[in-house]
Structure formats: structure tokens, C-alpha cells
Amino acid sequence: MKPITRIRIILFALMIFGSFANFALNEWGNTLIVWCEVLMALSFLGDITITLYHRVKTNERKKLSKVMLVLIATMLLSVLSAIFSLFFFKFSFAYVFPFTVFIAFFILLLIIIIEALYDFFKKVDSKFIYENVFLFICFMALIFKNASWPFTGQMIIFGVLFLVPYFITTTIKFFKANYKSGKPLVVILTFGSFATVFLGITYMMKTMHWPFADTFFYIASVITLVMIVGALKWTYVFNGEKINILQGLRLFKTNVILLFFMLFVFTSYKYFNILKLAPDFYSADYPEIVYQLRTGTSAEWFKASEIKEAYDNFIQKAAENGFIK
Fold first, then answer.
1. Angstrom distance (rounded) from CA 75 to CA 33
2. Do the Cβ atoms of 39 and 139 come closer than 8 Å?
3. Tally of CA atoms within 13 A in the half-sphere of 106 that contains its CB
4. How far apart are CA 50 and CA 45, in angstroms?
5. Which of 7, 181, 193, 212 falls 20 to 30 Å from 267 in CA-CA distance?
6. Residue 50 CB contacts under 8 Å (≥ 6 apart), including other chains
């Protein structure tokens, strides 16, 4: 397991810890989740940067990789400057960060288009960059969602719809390449990978409040159940050697395993939350209607902004008249 993967697992565990802290009415729990999402997004951006840095060493891609590094550096500096403005001048620049990151998102889109076109004609494998770019976008969307900023839905749709065909394709290739080496193990891992795809679609549809989201969740749950039953065997034969299920997970060259656990936890929580079997996330900043509207359409988001502004004015007037100290 690569060190960066271990770090991501730790961040995921901290996000779960932050969730339980939030359920216990500790507002710092949500702060912990947001910072873990920021670090997770930066980890994927770091993977992209390191890959491009190594390509600088080859004459074939030297000029292109330098352009990519400059674009990433520009994007990273813009995001960091926005964070600085948000934390130190929050009353004047409260809306700087989401729009700055939207510009960074556009730069990332430009990066992936340039990379894809170049690699298409030069027949250079760019799958590693492809996956990390769209995972970075998805985690930035989580940050936007927690902060109730605009463009969340667009980023989630864009990221998921580009990752779904990627994981379907890589899973099919994985199955074909390894099926003869260890049929039971490869079948179980393939089930897990396809469960991740359905969970990703569920997450997107739940976030956008689209119909049939529960249907995809049920399909993912059935596939996951089949995978769990198969994994109870624990020890398998692969290439003539005995390995356990955890060692078998290393056969994947993508981040699909981490995504499976994250998506499974999130979608399961949302399902139980709808059934009132899991608590809501706690926030004392604004009335609940503000957060509900901000996860909807653009018109609803602007309606939420009006309610938020009216609420702020109410609090300000109450403080001026001595009702709030």
C-alpha cells in the first residue's frame, strides 16, 4: 500500500470521527471534516503534480509538462490566496473563495483537455492523471457542499459522469487480465468495483435530488452483499499462491477501494437518515431551511441567500437594540 493511500485512509477515519463529533453537537466536527476533505483533494492534486514532474525529465513531454505545472501552480496559488482572504478578511471576501476555485476548476478542465488530446495523438497512457483530476474535482465539490457554495451540483455531476465510464472500463480490463489467474478472487473484486460505480451514481442522484436514487442504492447494496458473502472465504489462490482478500485488494491500480468505503458509508448514512434512523448534521449558524435550499437548484440557492441575508439583518438589529449580547 502506497504511503499516500495510508494517509487518505487516516483522513477518511478522521472524517468519520468528525461526523460523530458533529452528531454530539460539537461544531468543530464539521470543521474537521472540511479540512480532511481539503487535504484529500490536495493529495490527488499532489499525485497529478508529481506525475507531471516526472514527465519533465523526458524530452518527449518536457514542454507540455512544464505548461501543466504552470497551470497547476497558478490554480494552487489562486486557491491558497482565496483561503487566506476568507480566513483573515471574511467579511469583505466571503464570496471570493467559491468563485476563485471555480476558476481553478476551469484551469483543471483545460489541463485534462490538453493532456487527453496530446496523449491521444502520441499514444501515451494518461489514465493516472485522468482519475486524479476528476477525484480532485469531486472532493472540491464536497468542500463546496459543506460550505453551501454554488456550483456544487455541476462539479459533482461533471466529476461522477467522467469517473463512471473510467471505472467501468478499468474494471472490465482488470477482469479480462486476471480472470484466469484466480477466478473466485477476481470475480469478488469485480463485484466490489461495480458496487462502487452504482454507489457513485447514487451519491450524484441523491445530491441532485433526482428520482431513482434509491433504486441504484439497492442495486449497489445487493452487489455489495454478494461481495461480502464471497469475501468470507478470506483465502484465495492467485497465480498459484495463496493470498487473503486484503492482499487481493492491491491488485487494483486505481483508487476504487477507497472510494467504495467512502461512498458506502455516505450513501448508507443518507439512507438511514431519510428513515430517521440516523441523526442530522448539526449547525447553529442559520435556520435549517437555508441549508436545504442551498443544496437545490440555482433559484433555490439564491432564495437561500435572501433568507440568510434577512436572518443576518435580524440578528444585527437585535444586537443593536440590546436583545442579543
1. 23
2. no
3. 8
4. 9
5. 7
6. none
Rounded distance between C-alpha atoms, residue 69 and residue 74, angstroms: 8
pLDDT in tens, the chain (325 residues): 678 888 888 999 999 998 888 877 777 888 888 889 889 988 888 888 777 777 655 555 565 666 666 667 776 776 666 666 655 555 444 555 566 666 666 666 666 666 665 555 454 345 567 788 889 888 888 888 777 677 788 888 888 888 888 888 888 888 888 888 888 888 999 999 999 999 999 988 888 878 788 888 899 999 999 998 888 888 888 888 888 888 888 888 888 888 999 999 888 888 887 777 777 776 666 777 776 666 555 567 677 777 877 887 787 777 777 766 6
**Nearest Cα to Cα of residue 189 among 180, 199, 179:** 179
Which cell is 191 given?
Answer: 463485484
